[in-house]
Each structure stands twice: as structure tokens, then as C-alpha cells.
Amino acid sequence: MSSIKKPKIALVHDYIKEFGGAERVLEILSDIYPQADIFTTLYLPEFLGPHRSRLQKKWKNRLHTSFFQHTPFLPKLISPLRLLSPLAFKLFNFSKYDIIITSATGAYFPNSIRKKSAKHYCYCHTPPRYLYGLPTARNLKKYPLLNFLAQIINHFLRFFDFHWAQQIDQFIANSQTVKKRIGKFYRRPAVIINPPIDLPKKNLINTNRQDFYLSGGRLARAKRYDIAIKACNQLKLPLKIFGRDFASYAQELKNLAGPTIDFLGEVPQSKKAKLFSQAKAFIFSADQEDFGMVVLEAMAYGCPVIAHKSGGAEETVIDGQTGVFFDQLNLNSCIKAIKKFQKLSIKPTDCYRQAQKFSQSVFISKIKKLVN
Hints:
Helix content is 35%, strand content 15%. By secondary structure, it is an alpha/beta fold. It folds into 2 domains: 9-192, Rossmann fold; 202-356, Glycogen Phosphorylase B (Rossmann fold, 3-Layer(aba) Sandwich), CATH 3.40.50. The strands form 2 sheets. A 7-stranded parallel beta sheet has the order 3-2-1-4-5-6-7. Helix 6 (225-235) packs across helix 11 (331-342) and helix 9 (293-300) crosses helix 12 (348-356). 42% of the residues are buried.
């Protein structure tokens, strides 16, 4: 009886210079397929903070980087190198692989690979936000000439991005929001498999919350932490913010902060879990977020969410049961939502049950069923 040959699998990711939701998805994919090689344009473990040692151990002898890895002043050139990223991906040799799964964050162009005869799945976190008019971490409108040149370049990049999207055998969207973007910008169908959320043991859910609010994640401009800060300034509410600075936005936020705002920096998972289990509520002010794993991470610890009603948060927060929404992305709307929340009695167990629907085991089961 002949044995069945296991398919040779490759995982492809834009770049690895931080640890956010997309990198968490990549980590779980690498756990599902422990023999898979991992290809990325550049790998800077010194920026991975408390996740560094774990990932280095998991990915030892599996990571393959492009010529970007040897670029001088590499951390400063992440953004302009996106123009050369298609070349970097095309130079990888995928001739020996049967299945390729690209984890496309919307920063670079991993779908430009030469897939040869392999079946190509794309786990799409979002089409590039900067190409399609979605809020981004940088505000180029402050620099008219640079913005003008960027718009010209982006016009051509949209053409190529669309072309490479047609080579995908199967799109996987991380949310209904992203599925709609894939349909609109690429004219392609997609299946939805939400990102994996780590669940604590149910008996760790704390029903006695402390008197502080929480926000955090990647400290990028599109996350609109300024609204949460201004709201808590005005209401004189204690707000703790965790996360790594992105594009020097943290200093702008600190300049806005009043005496009740506390910046914690990047924190390990154990401390983040403690914050989620103690906070009165998690404030999520992101503008058209692709999915928002941090919202469900908060709910997994019984922490209700006060969220802007846009993007992925609309798919995960149940208004009045696991949190409340504010409709307008401005100070007054956020303040109204906080005051509305203060009048409610949201059960931590309801938050936990909602997070269960997005657990790591659910993600693994769906990925295996689709790819296998």
C-alpha cells in the first residue's frame, strides 16, 4: 500500500518588525504547520519585545528573508521599501511547494510571488489601506508635494495590486469588513475565517472590576487614541494605555494627556491579561478597523468594550450586552458612549461567551478544513 505524500507548505508574510494581530495569525499558522518554511522580506527580532524569545525558538531554521535584510538603516526604510517589495517576493523560489499561504497585512505585496504550480491561499488582513482611501498611520496631507507624488505612485500600485490579486486561488478574509473590501477592490470572493483569540480559563474571569478604563494596541494614528484620551481628560477618568509607539505618534498622545492618563508602554501577555481582567471597560476608537483582535482579547477576560461603530468592531461587540458603541468619531460621541456605559450593568460572563466564538481552536479547525 503506497503512502500518501504530505504537501510541502510555505507561509509568506510582509515583514516581521513588530508583534500585532497579523503576526499572531502567522504564529498560529506556523503552529498548525510546524514543518512549513516561513518567507518574509525582513526580520528584526529586536523589535518584538516580550514575544522575541518565544518566536525565535519556534521559527529557528524556518525563516527565510530577502535581500532587504542586508539594507543599511533598515528600520528607517520600512515604508519606502514597499516599492521594491514585489521584487523581493518574486526572487523567492517556491518551485518545491504544493501549498502557499500568504499573510497579507496590507503593507507590502506578498501576493506578487511566483507561485509556480502551488495552490495559493491568501489570508487577507486588509487590502493596502493607503491605496484605497482608508485611514492610515501617517498623515501625508501635511506635506502637499510628498502627498502629490504618493498619489501618482499609488495609482500605478493599485493597478499591480489588482493584477496580483487575480492570481490567488482562494482568498480568506479576516472579517466581513475585509471580505467586502476584497469584493470591491479585487472583485474576488472570499471565505471568512476570523483571527484566533486566546481564551483564559473561565474561572479566571473577574467580576469585581477596578475603577480605571483601558485602551491600547499598536499606537498608530488610525487607532484614534486621541479621542479616548480627550474623553477621559474631560470626564477626569483614569485611563491606562499600553502598546508600542508607531511613527512617533506616542509623543503626540502624551502631549494631549492629562493627569489621569497613564502610558504603560509595550507589556507582556501576563500583564496585559491582568489589565483586561481589572479594567472597567476597554475603549476602542479605531477608524474602520480591519477586525480588531484586541477587542475580543478584552472580552475574553470579561472586560466590556466601548467602541467606535465601524469596521470589525461592529462584528464582535454586541451593543448593550458586551459593550456600547459611539456612532461618530469625535469627542462628544465618545463621551456620550462612556456615560451610557456607566448606566449599564454588563456581565463579564456575557463578554467571555462572545469571545469564545472566536477562539484559537475555532480558527485552527476552519483553516485545516479549508486548506486540507
